[in-house]
Write the structure tokens for this entry.
Amino acid sequence: MAYNPNTHNRKSIRLKEFDYSQPGLYFVTICCQDRKCLFGAIKNNDMILNNAGQMINDEWLKLPQRFPNIKLHEYIVMPNHFHGILEIVGETLVVSRNDATTQNDNTTQKGQPQGFGPTGKTLGDMVGAFQSITTVKYINGVKTKNWERFNKKMWQRNYWEHIIRNKKSLIKIGEYIIDNPKKWDNDKFNKF
């Protein structure tokens, strides 16, 4: 089939001209391809992680090691999707011009300590890294731990995000995340 830009070009679901690397709170939802339940099951209104689900949980918690300018808030691994609130924080250390010429084991060439300050990475970069790392680890689990196979891709190509603009919204979304297992029977991601 020949490429047709009218049918094959996906439109971005991101806000146009919004800088997704700027400090702020973001609510993210990532779904498994075909909504396949790979990460565990809901039992008695609680999410019970299998080994793959525990790996997803652990890799989310490691994300600030890769991106030191983020802080994680409420999150949950569900059977076939993930919800989380990620905060990109502002610069955490000011470096003087004189310090910029100094270099030692703990600094970059510009003199800024590694792991501090803005990285220029966007929310998409962070979600993409999370998806990539977890996919590689899941494939290893399929090969070595007999985890369930997935069809071509573990995660859907895109993800949903919502910019959290105030405390009321942060609280409401946090409660939604916490209560998600209790609402699994009516969850739009529960195709079964």
In short: The two ends are 33 Å apart (CA to CA). The helical segments are 5-8, 51-66, 97-100, 123-145, 167-179.
